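Hi L.,

As promised, Sugar phosphate transporter domain-containing protein:
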Amino acid sequence: MAPANKAEKKASIDAAAWMFNVVTSVGIIIVNKALMATYGFSFATTLTGLHFVTTTLMTIVLRWLGYIQPSQLPLPDLLKFVLFANFSIVGMNVSLMWNSVGFYQIAKLSMIPVSCLLEVVLDKIRYSRDTKLSISVVLLGVAVCTVTDVSVNAKGFIAALIAVWSTALQQYYVHYLQRKYSLGSFNLLGHTAPAQAASLLILGPFVDYWLTNKRVDAYDYSTISLAFIILSCTIAVGTNLSQFICIGRFTAVTFQVLGHMKTILVLILGFLFFGKEGLNLQVVIGMFIAVLGMVWYGNASSKPGGKERRSYSMSSSKQKHAESAELDDKV
């Protein structure tokens, strides 16, 4: 196949993977918001555990159909990943509860510089000036959109710090494990989803009781609330899979930068479905700045020298990962 055709095919698959992630991520946020705000199901950690149960069932079916081949992931690496991932989930929930909305949004924005730092230190990535500036524009735009009141307290700051670093490490580790062990997204999910499902279902009810002072078993389940829980779990399969595909194909930093497009879409859909009182000139200006920064980042990071690795010791590992990514191309 000609290089131009290969580049076009890769661009098409990258766009499809990204749209898959955007649609499922925005969809699950809207469904979960309705489930929690309208039907009072405030057990976020337990719900995430159910998400991974559904994802585990999906990986079992895919393994049975032959889409997941036997692979190895050492137990220490698996445990490290699950630790980062679970601290990320609990940390985000606690940060949202203990902090103002403004400081919570600032903490989420800080994931990009933290992810950049991890890539610079651990992967020897070098960013061009344009790439750095474009990331700054994205952060500015999303900050204008989302950051309102900002108040900080000691325990909220600690929760945000844990949430930011654990999330950045978890997303970095997705890319790292796929490269190191030549794992496709299906294979990595097949290893990690069962462990996350088991740990979150055990810890989830206790964490949720600590956060909400409510018991998940005492919730008044109705047909509609159960339907929303099932819908949330179904969409979560696509969200988890698409996250692994996108981080595997891109990097944690690119995933974070483009991920703010989901923030903008959630704002727009929130205005449409849950009331338009938050739609004002400041938010519109922020959206415009953020989109401009994302376009700039895409152009800057794809240029020679825009974002490159200073050490090429993992080039053979990357080549192996490219072969394992062929299965992801079929998604």
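Strands lie at 125-127, 307-309.

Thanks again for sending the construct details.

K.
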